[in-house]
Amino acid sequence: MEGPLSGIKVVDLSTFVAAPVCGRLLADMGATVIKVERPEGDAWRQTGIRYNHTYYTQEKNPVFDIYNSGKEHIALNLKSPEGMQVMHQLLAEADVFVTNTRPGALRRLGLSYEDLKDKYPSLIYGILLGYGEKGPDADKPAFDTSAFWSRSGFLRDMAPLTGEYQPVLPPFSAGDTGTGILLMGQICAALLRRAKTGKGDCVRAGLFHNGIFTFGTMAIIAQKDGGAKVYPTTRIDYGVPGGSYQCADGEWIYIATSYYEILVKQLCKAIGREDLMEDSRFDTMDHRTQNKEAYYEIFREAFLQKPCAYWLEKGAQLDIPIVRMNHFSELATDEQAWVNGYLENVTFPDGSTGVMPSSPIDMESLGTVKTRPAPKVGADTESILKRLGYSQEKIQQMKETGAVK
144, 157, 176, 201: which is the annotated catalytic residue? Predict the structure, then answer.
């Protein structure tokens, strides 16, 4: 089925996760995406294998595939004149350029927005930044664990404050993924604008910027001139009766909110303590806050009396947002995920199969989007060069000089 971006050509000079996510989703919507790698390949290829080198290989690399599905792959040495010539030929035909190369390196290569905007006036230039284009940290190396999770305050302030306090361990690639999706959305908007005006654009998404916005609630309420909620916080200070509780069988549940009186009433009903709503210690939010230790202990002890399944059933009966707190390892067998198509079985080049998250692109007009495992480094170099008019003899000569792989 033809996608909404069919006919759009994208040059994807990206590494690791954030910018590759953007290119992958554009490909899922029908764009032709050419990923430009160094001759040695995107470092994320080896990262994916290192997560479990006895199971993942060059022929089965789902950690790389998830962010690079559906792309063509060309390997160019951009430090060689011939490699850079090919790059400009690709850009001359492109509608979109996506990169997460650092601003300083782009200027040295002659691939900054200022270098390209007049040369290719209809090009949508999409750049994925770490800490922004200005300031002392503009060229600082940035990953989601550092720029998104750490610099934003999440890791240090969202860990429970206990006697053995340690910052939260960051999840891999999650901040990258959200920021790549942000860049993709802006590119689609820029393409719509170009359809009306014929003009290109420069669109930016930054890990640090998106971290600030993503954790905006905390960033606002923690400001010293706004009442200054103090982080990190203890479990008791984290919105009782909401939050996490252990059950009789050792499982954990999470209750999503504490601030709506109707839900507080339903939770009291769930644990058989409707009298709490009439108790002068707990009958208002202010009173519950003043007596939070005693209030928390009532709920903690109550949830310890029954197994997880009991509380989930109670939640369903009373329309309370209670969920079992799952492990990552359980996602691959989650019935709700499978029935909605959030997971898929993928066949890898070595013939083996595995479960992967499906594309988050979900459009009635597009139909089901399938994950397509990425080929090896430079797998499409020859075919792309031939489309650009290079002879087999010239391609061979460029391989020998190291301009391409």
Answer: 176
What is the number of other CB atoms lying within 10 angstroms of the CB of residue 366? Answer: 17
Site of tokens 């990953």: 143
Per-residue pLDDT of the chain (405 residues; tens, 9 = 90+): 789 999 999 999 999 999 999 999 999 999 999 999 999 999 999 998 999 888 899 999 999 999 999 999 999 999 999 999 999 999 999 999 999 999 999 999 999 999 999 999 999 999 999 999 999 999 999 999 999 999 999 999 999 999 899 999 999 999 999 999 999 999 999 999 999 999 999 999 999 999 999 999 999 999 987 667 889 999 998 889 999 999 999 999 999 987 789 999 999 999 999 999 999 999 999 999 999 999 999 999 999 999 999 999 999 999 999 999 999 999 999 999 999 999 999 999 999 999 999 999 999 999 999 999 999 999 999 999 999 999 999 999 999 999 999
SS (H, E, C) the chain: CCCCCCCCEEEEECCCCHHHHHHHHHHHCCCEEEEEECCCCCHHHHHHHHCCCCCCCCCCCHHHHHHHCCCEEEEECCCCHHHHHHHHHHHHHCCEEEECCCHHHHHHHCCCHHHHCCCCCCCEEEEEECCCCCCCCCCCCCCHHHHHHHCCCHHHHCCCCCCCCCCCCCCCCHHHHHHHHHHHHHHHHHHHHHHHHCCCEEEEEEHHHHHHHHCHHHHHHCCHHHCCCCCCCCCCCCCCCCEEEECCCCCEEEECCCCCHHHHHHHHHHCCCHHHHCCCCCCCHHHHHHCHHHHHHHHHHHHCCCCHHHHHHHHHHHCCCEEECCCHHHHHHCHHHHHCCCEEEEECCCCCEEEEECCCCCCCCCCCCCCCCCCCCCCCHHHHHHHCCCCHHHHHHHHHHCCEC
Return all residues near 122 (Cβ < 8 A) that are at least 6 apart. 95, 194, 198, 199, 200
All domains of the chain in start order, with CATH? 9-214+375-401 (3.40.50.10540), 243-329 (3.30.1540.10)
176 counts as catalytic? yes
Q: Against a cut of 0.70, is the pTM above it?
A: yes
